[in-house]
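Need residues for this backbone.
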């Protein structure tokens, strides 16, 4: 009888032989076998068979070891900010001695050949404050709180097909003059074919300490220079202090809201022209209204007023066949200040002539959801329905001044999701014109042009006050963003599993 102490002559695999094998296999498998090999003698051929079965039928076992080498992802990494650089107008030492004041930034996004841009997700923060525009459309701003740069903001914006201009007005403030200043940004551009790429803040951005009068779409860039990189994320006075808030799982959406107009069958055909809509909301006796979030779109375009104050509009729509329609992305206005008891929401919507040859009537509608927040932290959601009042209009002022008795109930074409609008292409952030004064970068710079005046006649289509139309074809086919690194890990695990399986077969033949 062969002795177990003689591995060379034994048909059985001993612990010594097992540990030689452990060089070829991940610790996950070795751990399973280690529990029994020291005490149980197993024929080597059967052990090879067992190992092969483990690898082929349980690929997650080797993945346990392989997965340890994969980078752990978090919201900051996924946004791209952890790979970005802090930039500013060139100064001798941006980490300690940037002068107090405003700096304008420009970054032009050009789609690669054969690619059509659909939308962008923009993660950004600035020490100390900022306002962001995309193609002249105000998208968002910091909130002006103490050390706001420590919390990055993430915005979504619809894009032109081939070329887009991202503009940022940053402000360095503080009692210490000078002090550190920087902009940190990551722009993930999503294309209609489902692919994406990320543009980071670096020295390809342009910066100017002189704010052009036509900013954020300056025609003369002679005052702009190449931005200077102060340091990469994780270094300098900012360290790793930047965070990204967790997305709201209960974010406002249009589900349950109705498409409304002033005439019946508007989803099929409605007269060319403008219609005003009004909804008056009175706070409950025990609550005080503080702010509102408004999600809104209209076919073809709109202007939003709250308590007769202009709030905003979507990007300009030129109504050209083959170009994107601005209604395809609902506009999201957040934290708009309200009066304590009664608030009047007004939407002035315009229906363009149909895009087919000859023009004429086309589908028309407006859909909205309004979430009102009260002082006790509770909220109420108001949706478009037949309780809204409506009437054709000739001017903004005449509708804003009209009595409720002169208006009629709106007519619902059906709930959000109906044809011809479907569920839209997405949501685009929009900055309220009622910018909080605490955000120093939100103040229109000296000499700069404020948004163009609100049109008082609607004989022509409503123009958006500060923006240009996305020139991309229909974005309804645009796929959601796909993280550039999301597909690499599974492929790596599969490749290493195949390699391990091949090694087991080779060892089987060598025994």
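Answer:
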């Amino acid at each position: 009888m062969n002795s177990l102490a003689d591995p060379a002559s034994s048909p059985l695999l001993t612990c010594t032989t097992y540990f030689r094998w452990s060089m070829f296999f991940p610790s996950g498998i070795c751990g399973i076998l280690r529990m029994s090999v020291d005490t149980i003698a197993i024929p080597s051929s059967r052990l090879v068979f067992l190992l092969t079965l483990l690898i082929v039928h349980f690929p997650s076992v080797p993945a346990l070891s392989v997965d340890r080498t994969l980078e752990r992802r978090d919201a900051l990494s996924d946004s791209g900010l952890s790979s970005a650089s802090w930039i500013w107008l060139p100064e001798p030492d941006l980490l300690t001695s940037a002068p107090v004041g405003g700096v304008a930034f420009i970054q032009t996004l050009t789609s690669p050949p054969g690619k059509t841009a659909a939308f962008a997700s923009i993660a950004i923060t600035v020490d100390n404050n900022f306002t962001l525009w995309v193609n002249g459309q105000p998208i968002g701003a910091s909130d002006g709180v103490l050390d706001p740069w420590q919390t990055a903001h993430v915005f979504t914006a619809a894009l032109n097909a081939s070329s887009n201009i991202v503009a940022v007005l940053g402000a360095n403030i503080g009692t210490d003059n000078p002090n550190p200043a920087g902009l940190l940004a990551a722009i993930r551009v999503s294309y209609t074919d489902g692919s994406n790429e990320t543009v980071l803040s670096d020295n390809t951005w342009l910066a100017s300490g002189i704010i052009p009068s036509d900013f954020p779409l300056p025609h003369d860039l002679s005052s702009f220079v190449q931005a200077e990189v102060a340091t990469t994320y994780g270094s300098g006075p900012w360290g790793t202090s930047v965070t990204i808030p967790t997305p709201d799982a209960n974010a406002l959406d249009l589900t349950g809201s109705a498409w409304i107009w002033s005439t019946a069958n508007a989803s099929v055909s409605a007269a060319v022209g403008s219609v005003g809509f009004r909804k008056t909301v009175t706070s409950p006796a025990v609550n005080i209204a503080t702010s509102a979030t408004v999600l809104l779109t209209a076919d073809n375009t709109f202007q939003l007023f709250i308590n007769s104050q202009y709030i905003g509009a979507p990007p300009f729509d030129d109504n050209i066949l083959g170009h994107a329609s601005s209604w395809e992305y609902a506009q999201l206005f957040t934290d708009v200040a309200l009066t304590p008891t009664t608030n009047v929401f007004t939407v002035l919507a315009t229906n363009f002539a149909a895009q087919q040859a000859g023009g004429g009537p086309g589908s028309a509608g407006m859909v909205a959801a309004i979430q009102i927040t009260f002082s006790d932290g509770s909220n109420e959601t108001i949706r478009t329905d037949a309780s809204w009042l409506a009437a054709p209009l000739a001017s903004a002022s005449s509708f804003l001044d009209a009595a409720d008795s002169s208006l009629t109930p709106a007519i619902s074409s059906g709930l959000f999701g109906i044809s011809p609008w479907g569920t839209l292409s997405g949501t685009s952030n929009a900055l309220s014109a009622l910018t909080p004064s605490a955000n120093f970068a939100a103040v229109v710079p000296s000499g700069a042009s404020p948004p163009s005046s609100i049109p008082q006649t609607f004989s022509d289509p409503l123009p958006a006050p500060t923006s240009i139309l996305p020139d991309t074809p229909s974005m309804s086919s645009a796929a959601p963003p796909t993280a550039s690194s999301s597909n690499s890990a599974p492929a790596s695990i599969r490749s290493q599993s195949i390699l391990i399986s091949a090694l087991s077969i080779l060892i089987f033949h060598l025994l």
